[in-house]
Each structure stands twice: as structure tokens, then as C-alpha cells.
Automatic annotation (TrEMBL):
It comes from the Bacteria. It comes from Nocardioides panacihumi. Gene3D superfamilies: Glycerate kinase, domain 1, Glycerate kinase, domain 2. It holds the Pfam family Gly_kinase. This is Glycerate kinase. Belongs to the glycerate kinase type-1 family.
Length: 357
């Protein structure tokens, strides 16, 4: 059989590349003659650059940018022809903030990544959004590109309170694409602060003031764009990119197109995806749902291997997945965390017994 292996990362344990390799290793134990095509995936969040580089190749440019606390932070720019791919989480991700200080964390380093890409000769810059530890509406990014205002733009969302004027930077001679599956607006009940702020360590009592600060930013810049789907992505980074004229594209669809996932699915007999937790929120732009849609378009079955499976058969079918298999159910949570790659390989071997002819 021809098996397309297209998992996301298993957050906190395995990168998407590591997960694909573990699934392949386990599958081969049972079906050594099956042809395995590894296509690790990402949706724009952590791992975005690594996933694309593993498939597209290209040149990795090492740079140092400002982290969310303005300390120097290593990051990379992937150059493939005249297109550059950058990952916002490398400059302002939750892994850098430790889940605290989101009110003062800045996206300045993301702007520096875009500048580094432009300086390297890129004509198109794709910015992967997701996993941010910031909530500044992308004001830091704008500052790095040369924007100015009557309030500091590089001191996080808290520094934006009362902003009334914003002078945008000079246009860059590059096309910008925002890769994100988040469709929330910048502010309000379903905006960046109230929806994702608690995940970044913001206390409930901090949310109204910070949401108000982003409303002030929108009033100073463009209220209409603040309502656009995706403006609230990555703590409002999506809004700043929209202000710069960026095109917003679903992250999973962009990656799938870049690695020719539809064509590879048509050449496969079975598509295997995976992620840390497979639940009904997977419909909201997460990798297994996107992979299942591609598999359906190619008239191929899709199965999912996950750390946890929290959906029933009916919900699974609604997500376009034939079957889902739980790592924790097979080996237990302690073993799964102690040896994630080995445990995932064991699960893949078990699944191969059911699906490989």
C-alpha cells in the first residue's frame, strides 16, 4: 500500500517531523513493504518553518531578533526562491514568555523577521501566525518597520492605552501573506484578548483594560480592519499585517498547497494524520481536519493517531475521519509522556495491522 503520513506536532512532546518519523517507524514494523510518503504539517504556529523546510528544502537564514521581552532571541528565515517563510512564534511565542507577562510582551521581533526576509531578497514573505505569547495588536511589529505613535508601540498591549495617532511605516517592496486559521476579530467578546488572553496567563480582571487598549489602537488606525476575520490572530498580529496590506490565507491550506498535499493524497491509498489532542475543536483550522479535507477531495480514507481522542464516532465522521486512535488509551499517559516517539510508533504498528492489506 501507499501511505501518506501527514501529522501535526504533538504539542510539548514531538515536532511534526518527529511525529511523522515515529509513525513511519511503527508502520514499517508490521508492513515493511508499504510505500510511506512523509509530509509533516503545520497550520502557521510553532514548527511552521521546520515543516516547510523538511519538504521544500531552501536556505535557512539564521538571525537574531528581539524576543517578547526585547532580549535577543535566535530565529530563522526560510528562503525558497523569492519567497520567505517566517514563524511569529520564534519571536513572540508562548514558549518564550512562559505563559506570563502578555500585557507587556512585544511583537517587535516579528517585524525584524520581515525586514530580514526583505533584506535577503525575498519578494514575498509568508508569516506563520499561531502560538503567540503577546497581545499587542501587532504594534511592536509596526514599530520595527518604522511606525510611530503618541504612545509606545513596543511595550505590549498595556502601553497602547490612550493611543490617538498612528503613523504607518513606509511600504515595503514585498508581498505579505498572513498564514492563520484563526478567524476572530481584533477586539470584543470573540476578539484576541478575551478569547486567547487567558491562555497566555492574563487574569480575568486584566482583560477589559487590554481589550480597551486594542480598541484604542483600532480607533487610531483602522476600525474596519479590526473587524476583519483573522485580525485577532496571534494576539492581534493579524491586524497589523492587514494594516500592511497582507493577504490572509488559512495556514493549513497554504502548507498543503506548498507541499502538494492534494497530489500526494491522490497517489496514496490511505492518509494518516495526527496531533496531540483530537477533539471537536479540530474543526477550527487544525491540521487533521485540513488533512482529512484533502483526503476527501482525493477520495481517500483518512485516519488519525492522537495523544488523546475526545470525540465519538459521529463527530469523527463529521470531521471526515474514518477512525481515530489514542496513544493514552493504548499505553497510558505516563508511558506516552515518558517515551512519546516510541509510544507513537507502537500505536502506528497497531493501526497498520488494521489498515495495511
Amino acid at each position: 500500500m501507499r501511505i501518506l503520513v501527514a501529522p501535526d506536532k504533538f504539542a510539548g512532546t514531538l515536532t511534526a517531523v518527529e511525529a511523522a518519523e515515529a509513525i513511519a517507524a511503527g508502520w514499517r514494523r508490521h508492513a515493511s513493504t508499504d510505500e510511506l510518503d512523509l509530509a509533516p504539517m503545520a497550520d502557521g504556529g510553532p514548527g511552521f518553518v521546520d515543516v516547510l523546510q523538511s519538504t521544500l528544502g531552501g536556505e535557512l537564514l539564521a538571525v537574531t531578533v528581539s524576543g517578547p521581552d526585547r532580549r535577543p532571541t535566535p530565529a530563522t528565515v526560510l528562503l525558497v526562491g523569492d519567497t520567505a517563510y517566517v514563524e511569529s512564534a520564534q519571536a513572540c511565542g508562548l514558549a518564550l514568555t512562559g505563559g506570563c507577562g502578555a500585557e507587556t510582551a512585544t511583537t517587535y521581533g516579528v517585524g525584524e523577521l520581515i525586514l530580514a526576509a526583505a533584506d535577503a531578497g525575498a519578494r514575498r514573505v509568508v508569516v506563520g501566525l499561531g502560538g503567540s505569547g503577546t497581545n499587542d495588536g501587532g504594534a511592536g511589529l509596526l514599530a520595527a518597520l518604522g511606525a510611530s505613535a503618541d504612545r509606545p508601540l513596543d511595550q505590549g498591549g498595556a502601553g497602547l492605552t490612550g493611543i490617538t495617532t498612528l503613523t504607518m511605516p513606509k511600504p515595503l517592496d514585498v508581498e505579505i501573506v498572513a498564514a492563520s486559521d484563526v478567524d476572530s476579530p481584533l477586539t470584543g467578546l470573540f476578539g484576541a484578548t478575551k478569547t486567547y488572553g487567558p491562555q497566555k496567563g492574563l487574569a480575568e480582571e486584566q482583560l477589559p483594560a487590554l481589550d480597551g487598549a486594542l480598541q484604542d489602537l483600532a480607533s487610531a488606525a483602522d476600525r474596519r480592519l479590526a473587524l476583519a476575520p483573522g485580525a485577532g490572530a496571534a494576539g492581534g498580529l493579524g491586524y497589523a499585517l492587514l494594516l500592511l496590506g497582507a493577504e490572509r490565507r488559512p495556514g493549513i491550506a497554504l502548507v498543503a498547497e506548498a507541499v502538494d498535499l492534494p497530489g500526494r493524497a491522490r497517489r496514496a491509498d490511505l492518509v494518516v494524520s495526527g496531533e496531540g489532542a483530537f477533539d471537536f475543536s479540530s474543526r477550527s483550522g487544525k491540521v487533521p481536519y485540513g488533512v482529512a479535507e484533502v483526503a476527501a477531495g482525493a477520495a481517500r480514507p483518512c485516519v488519525v493517531l492522537a495523544g488523546r481522542v475526545d470525540v465519538g464516532a459521529r463527530e469523527m465522521r463529521a470531521l471526515g475521519v474514518e477512525s481515530a486512535y489514542s496513544l493514552v488509551d493504548l499505553v497510558g499517559e505516563e508511558a506516552a509522556l515518558a517515551d512519546p516517539a516510541g509510544s507513537l510508533a507502537t500505536l502506528a504498528e497497531r493501526v497498520a495491522r488494521s489498515w495495511s492489506r
